[in-house]
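so my prof wants the structure for this chain in the tokens format not the other one, which i didnt know existed until like an hour ago. anyway here's the sequence
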Amino acid sequence: MNTLVKINNLTKSFGKFQALNGVSFEMKKGEVLGFIGPNGAGKSTTIRVLLGMLKADSGEVSIFNQDVWKEAVEIHKRVVYVPGDVNLWPNLTGGEVIDLFLSLRGQEVNKKYKEELIKRFEFDPTKKCRAYSKGNRQKVALIAAFAAPADLYILDEPTSGLDPLQERVFQECVEAVKGEGASVLLSSHILSEVERLCDSVAIIRHGKIVETGSLEKLQHLTRIQVMVKTQKQITGLEEQPWAHDIVFEGKNVFFQLDSNHMGDLISFVQPFGVVKFDSSPAKLEDLFMRHYESAKGGL
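here's what i got, hopefully its the right format
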């Protein structure tokens, strides 16, 4: 796949505060990339640089092999952006704003699909925007975003204010545009959403990227929760370097396992007569929380 978004050694400061310090990651064509991190870590600042809203202090930032600052106008013709807090014209109806957003993109709109999105998001387009809740304001932006094609969707906390049913509709929309070959950069605090939708993730903390890669690759860095019940009491488990946070309850033992040591575990427990064996796969949340916990006190 071709590189669609490239960020290399990006820095950005506001006065004495360094918001971004050497941020680097890439995104491929047709990929959904989850961009996650604690509040204040630098996610929105990075996105604003990508959109040409902020000028980087240093580093290289490009979309479609074009400089995001110098060629922002051309880039924006192929990019859709949805922020986490949508501000709308209070005297216009939601339907009028959707049509306005779509007209600004200068593309042919599939009106039937637009109406389908309005129905699926359970949105009333006839009300004035001043009457909309935060969730309904998000629906305006999301319907406008998905009603016409784009090559890249940049979504910054796009489901903020939506109920779980509408989050599900959003996820289906992302899966649909990915199926059409588009790319999605998704910044989200809902880790289950990222895990469901994304091919890869970039985790940012204190303005630095601390992990990047495919979900499959990164989940190997996390631990698996394991429960083993045996005929004979397990002994010597505490001495194994791959077993952590061990808790015995009779002949049941609960612990965390380094995920690349499953073979070692199976060989170790076999002599004790395994009666029951349960394991929970590594979750993105485990990886994220490891970095989040180490970031506390300086968010």
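also thought this was worth mentioning. The longest strand covers residues 3-14.
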